[in-house]
Amino acid sequence: MSDSGDDFLSLLDLTEYEAAALEELLLLGRTTAPDLAEATGIPKARIYGVLDSLSEGGYVKIIPGRPKRYQPHDPSEIAERAVANRRHAYERFREDVEAVEESFVDAYTPVRDRGVDDLSPTEDLFHVVDVGEPSERETRRLFREAEESVYVLTKSFGYIDAVRPAMRDAIEHGVDVDALLLAPEHLSEKNKRRQDEIRGLLGAEFPSVSVRISDRVLPWRGTFIDPSLEYDSGQGLLMVEQEEIPNHHRQAAVTENPSFVAGLWQYFDLLWRHESRSGTQ
Questions:
Q1: Which CATH class is domain 124-278?
Q2: What CATH code is assigned to 1-115?
């Protein structure tokens, strides 16, 4: 299936078997459960439950007969049903939260207020997450929550695959994205090739993203959003350069302190204006 098909199926909260079955049905059209099990490798003991779940979700219709046959709904209907399912799930979630919200707030607000005064200046400034999936998850969140601008300071943007959908959504909502990459002469051969691929990808898929190349070795890298010199907005994630420490042992700092983010932006802006060159391919 195409990348767009994989991207869509990943949004449906399906199990691995359900996604495989729906994908194969979209390719085959109408078929029986045993034939679908054979085509997908799904155990025959599981295939009927998988198809029942897809039917309940509104993605597949069951055609009576001996044997029963299964047929996917039209792709546009599947997309509409996916949105409706998510909307209904959200409404149920909202109702559940509202049912217990008052008691939760009453129980924990006094406890939280007692703890605020105990925060150290460092804890108030940022918290840390592990580098890897946790930091990529935070970066996706930043792209999703950005209202005006996203700034990326990175060696080669090697993690772009992990944030592409979130970045695409941000751009489609009118968010400006600037990416400052490290000059290739400061990169390993592997990272040089990877950066070159990514710059080509940015030019092809995200032509609105402004890309520049920094000749200065970067002391830190990260992503931050919506900086304000009035210090009333801004979030960010950054990690300092520590070549001697492998990524899986490193941590990144997450901040929601507008003053700190304004400082990050001023550093970024100086490099962007005075110590970088165009990186558009």
A1: alpha beta
A2: 1.10.10.10
